[in-house]
Amino acid sequence: MGLLSKKDAKLITDPLADNNPITIQVLGICSALAITAELKASLVMGIAVLFVLGIGTVIISLIRNIIPSNIKIIVQLIVVASLVIIVDQVLKAFAYELSKTLSVFVGLIITNCIIMGRFEAFALGNGPWRAFLDGVGNALGYAVILLVVGFFRELLGSGTLFGIPVLGDPIEKTGLYSIGYENNGFMLMPPMALIIVGLIIWVQRSRNKALIED
Amino acid sequence: MIEHIELFFKSIFIDNMVFAVFLGMCSYLAVSKKVSTAVGLGAAVIFVLAITVPLNWLLDQYLLQPGALSWLGEEFADYDLGFLSFIMFIATIATMVQLVEIIVEKFSPSLYNSLGIFLPLIAVNCAILGGSLFMQSREIETFGLAVNYGISSGIGWFLAILAIASIREKIRYSNVPGPLRGLGITFIVTGLMGIGFLSFGGMLTGGDEAPKEASQVNETVKIENLEPVIEEEKEIVTITKSEN
After folding, report:
1. Average pLDDT over every residue of B167-188
2. Exposure of A102 by Cβ count < 10 A (0-12 exposed, 13-18 middle, 19+ buried)?
3. B16 → chain A, closest CA residue
4. Scanning A51, B34, B71, B80, which has its CA 20 to 30 A from the CA of A21?
5. d(Cα B81, Cα B85) in Å, to the nearest integer?
6. Which of B124, B157, B173 to mutate to test the interface with A (most CBs of A within 10 A)?
7. DSSP-derived secondary structure for A56-78
8. Which residues have CB under 8 Å from B22's CB, separation 6+?
9. Is the CB of residue B222 less than 8 Å away from at least one CB of chain A?
10. Cα–Cα distance list, A85 to A13, B81, B85, B177 (Å)
C-alpha cells in the first residue's frame, strides 16, 4: 500500500472484518436484507452506498467547522438526501428495471444508519482525506456482507448468479437438476436473509472470541 | 369500509414492516432488550407514523405528484416535482419528531428518560421514511386510507418489537452458544418469526384475488422460477371455480 500510511490503510480494512458496519456495529441492516435476493441488486446497492458515503463524508468533513451544532442533523440529512436523489435519478435513467426492483430502498439509503453513523462518529471530527477513506471502508464492508448474502440467496434460491444460470436449467432438467436437485424457493423469501446474516455473525464471532457478548 | 379493514390487516400481518420489508431494524435490535422500553418505543413509532404518513400524503397529493400543482393554475399542471419527495418527506418527519419529543418531555418525563437517545433517532428510523415512501409507491388513494396505513403499519412494527423483546428476555436463561449470543440469535429468531408471519399471506385472498395477493407479498423480490407454480395454482383456482 504505497500511497496510504498504515493508519490510513486500517481505515479501509477494519470495516471489512473486525469493525463491519452490519455485523459488528449493527447499522444499515434494513436495506441489507430486503434487496439481496439478486446479486445484481446487491451490487448496485453497494455501489450506491459507496457513492453516497464517499462524497458525503468529504462534504461533511469540509464544512464541519462551519455547521452550528444545533442544526447538525438537519444539515447531514440534507446532504445525504441530495446525494440519494442524484443516485435515484441516475438509476431511473440508466437502469429502470433495477430501480423498480430496488423500489423504495434507494430512498431509504437516506435513513441508512451507516451513513449518519459514520458522519457523527468520524467525518465530523476528521479531515477530508481520512473521512473519505473511512467512508469508503465502511461502504466496502457493507457491500461485502450484501454480496455474501446475495450470493447464497440467489444461488440457492434461483440457481443463477447475476442472472446467469450456473447449476443447469431447471425447466430442461440439465446440469444439477438432472439428479433431482430443486431450487430452494424459500431462500428468496425475506426471512432467510435474516437467518443467513445470523449465521455470518456466528462464523465471525467464532473466529474472533473478543466479539462475544455476555 | 371494506378496503379500510383490508388495508388495516394487510399492513399489520402481511406487509409487516419488520418481517416483510425489514424497516426499522436498527432500533428494533437495539431497544428490544427489555419489554418496557420496547413498548415505549413501539408506541412512539405508532404515534409518529400516524402523524407523518397523512401529512406526507397531503404533500404528495398537492405538491409532488405529476400534475399535482394544477390547483395553482392551469399552466402548472405539467410539473412533476416527484424528485423532491425524499427531501420533503424527511423534512416533515424531522419536524414532527422534534414536536413529539417536546410533547413527550412535557407530559411524560419518565418515558422521555427511558427512551433516551432513541426518540430523536426515530427521525432516521427507516420505518418512518419507509412508511411514507410505501404510501407514495403504492399510491394510497384517500386521506383516510393514509391515516389507516400509518396507524396499522405502526401497530405491525409495535407487534414485532414487543414479540422479540419478550423472547430476548426469556432467551437469556437458555444455553445459547457463545458466538450466537445476543445479536446472532436475535437475527435467527426474527427470521423464524418472519417465516411464521408468512403464513398470513393467504389471509385476504378471495378467489379472484389469489394471483394478485401472491405478487403483492413478493413485491420487492423478483421470483422468476415460481412462475410455473403460480400458473398451476391459477389453473387449480379456475378449475375449482368452474366446479362451483
Report:
1. 87
2. buried
3. A190
4. B34
5. 7
6. B124
7. HHHHHHHTTTTS-GGGHHHHHHH
8. A29, A30, A31, A33, A34, A190, A193, A194
9. yes
10. 29, 12, 9, 43
- The number of helices, as runs of H, and strands, as runs of E, in chain B is 11, 0
Q: Of residues B176 and B212, which shows the higher confidence score?
A: B176
| CA distance, residue B179 to nearest chain A CA (Å) | 5
**pLDDT above 70 for A27:** yes
| Cβ–Cβ below 8 Å for A30 and B222 | no
Name the region of A35 (left: φ>0; alpha: ψ -120 to 50; beta: rest).
alpha
Residues 6+ apart with CB under 8 A from A150: A36, A37, A38, A39, A41, A42, A43
B165 has pLDDT over 90? yes
Contacts of B181 in chain A (CB under 8 A): 212-214
Residue B231 predicted with pLDDT over 60: no
Q: Which of A31, A119, A104 is nearest to B129 (CA)?
A: A104
Nearest to B40 by CA among B103, B105, B106, B114: B114
Residues A88, A99: contact at Cβ < 8 Å? yes
**What percent of chain A stands above pLDDT 70?**
94
> Using a CB-CB distance cutoff of 8 angstroms, which residues of chain A are in contact with residue B177?
202
Q: Is the pLDDT of residue B160 over 80?
A: yes
For residue B132, is pLDDT > 90?
A: no
Element (H, E) at A90: helix A72-94
* B180·A202 Cβ contact <8 A: yes
Give the DSSP H/E element, type plus range, for residue B118: helix B118-121
More confident residue, B131 or A17: B131
Those of residues 29-68 in B touching chain A at CB distance below 8 A are: 29-30
pLDDT digit string (tens) for B13-24?
888 888 888 888
Q: Specify the residue for cell string 430501480.
A: A99
Q: Name the pTM for this structure.
A: 0.77
Nearest CB to A198: which of B21, B133, B188? B188
Residue B119 pLDDT > 90:
no
Asked if A111's CB is within 8 angstroms of B124's CB, the reply is yes
Q: How far is A131 from chain B (nearest CA, A)?
A: 21
**CA–CA gap between residue B72 and residue B62 (Å, rounded):** 10
Q: Across chain A, what does the average pLDDT equal?
A: 81
User: Is ipTM beyond 0.85?
Assistant: no
According to DSSP, residue B63 is labeled I
Between A39-53, B43-57, B77-91, B109-123, the lowest mean confidence (pLDDT) is in: B109-123
